[in-house]
Amino acid sequence: MYRENAWLKYTEEEKKQVMDFAEGYKEFLSFGKTERLVTKESIELLEKHGFKNAASLKSVKKGDKVYFINKKKNVCAFIIGEKPLEEGLRILGAHIDSPRLDLKEHPIYEKNGFALGDTHYYGGVKKYQWTTIPLALHGVVCKKDGSVIDVNIGEDENDPIVGITDLLIHLSADQMALPLAKAITGENLDVTLGSIPVDKDEKNAVKANVLRLLKEKYDVEEEDFVSAEIEVVPAGKARDYGLDKSMIAGYGHDDRSCAYTSLKAILDTDAKKVSYAACCILVDKEEIGSVGATGAHSLFFENTIAELAALLGNQDALFTARKAMQNSYMLSSDVSAGFDPLYPQVNDPKNAAYFGLGIVFNKYTGSRGKSGSNDANPEYYAFIRKVMDEANVNWQNAELGKVDQGGGGTIAYILGNYNMNVIDAGIPVLNMHAPMEIVSKADVYEAYRAYLAFLIA
User: How far apart are CA 93 and CA 325, in angstroms?
Assistant: First the structure.
């Protein structure tokens, strides 16, 4: 169903299914505040659904369900299909990192009676949006003895929260005269950690008290932060949004809404219906260019396909992997910019993504002259249209704002470099990259249905 409001087609029973599906997603989103936590939760769900860790296997066969892990930040799940691997896969690829603040390697300092945590922002953020809101600390501290300590402060209702202060309106005349992009600077995005001194005679007594508390709770020393990864993220659970509860407000819809629906699709796919091998890959670092060992530019995915080929008994596993990727069809499962009625001027209305119309297909993203875009082949787009319509999926098309208005990108072009057919397919979002993003429950559900149909196409 092309560009029609999904809510109008649902029966009362189907509306209940949409709402029930949203509850599972809200739980996933509320827990998965970091890429490590999403990976952990994904592995638990995969194992509950019969997927086995490929590291423990010596061979696989048709109908088997397996998964691979990379550095606790990537998950790649497969259902082995009827056709030989070299004939291609049906791939769903989403990213599980989101814009945030990271504590620096030497983060804790004292200033004018406050202990503060020095941060460096990650990804594209509007800095002013991160002040005066409840924030939590999530991550790991890796000690020299090899132990890894999980940190989670601010999610339990009995936990304290942290935050970033802003000037009171009474004294902010100079600040208010600055351009929006300069009113809050990156070096001022430091979180308040405490204000009680441990001893009046001790230098930096407030900082010392915070370090004492961390030592008591986590057995962490100040020097351990050099080998830590602590992310500062919005505190609290995802919530229903709107009086009709038609939407979900939460942190990290970009891109965990597509990660969850992609993962759920492969979990719910009947192995007996899989012709081409079905795949769901969750990657990291998309918000900073898909770089590094856990980003889409990494060789992890290619190596994983080669390992899978070897487990299937192929003699030249790398050649098989290259053939498989070349013949694959992929949906780059990433969100799109939803049309905001308060800011209509940034969109071409006939090529915008609207809430409630279902999954969004972006033939191209990029900026200006489609720079950095995958720009999908029309033959492949026609195939996708057919699959969606035959499955009665609500879908729409869009581009990311008016020409020369701005732009953005996804991992689509990276996988396109393997000569596979790729198109962006995701969920429209309002407030993208803000601490509180908004999605429609109908769009989340239709994306799940679209991904289900694609995996068996």
Answer: 13
Identify the bridge partners of residue 191 per DSSP, sorted by sequence position. Answer: 117
Is the CB of residue 385 less than 8 Å from the CB of residue 440?
no
Q: What is the dihedral of CA 26, 31, 34, 36, to 10 degrees?
A: -120
Q: Which residues of 35-52 are buried (b: 16+ CB within 10 A; e: fewer)?
A: bbbbbbbbbebbeeeebe
In this prediction the pTM is 0.95
**What would the pLDDT profile of 190-213 be if each residue is shown by its tens digit?**
999 999 998 777 889 999 999 999
pLDDT tens, position by position, 77-120:
999 999 999 999 999 999 999 999 999 999 999 999 999 999 99
Exposure letters 8-17 (e unless 16+ CB within 10 A, then b)? eebeeeebee
Main-chain dihedrals φ then ψ at residue 102, nearest 5 degrees: -115, 135
Strand partners, 429: 337
Which domains, ranges and CATH numbers included, belong to the chain? 6-98+251-455 (3.40.630.10), 100-234 (2.30.250.10)
Nearest to 110 by CA among 196, 48, 42, 38: 196
User: Count of CB atoms within 10 A of residue 237's CB?
Assistant: 13
State how far the Cα of 340 lies from the Cα of 345, in Å rounded to an integer: 9
DSSP state of 286: G
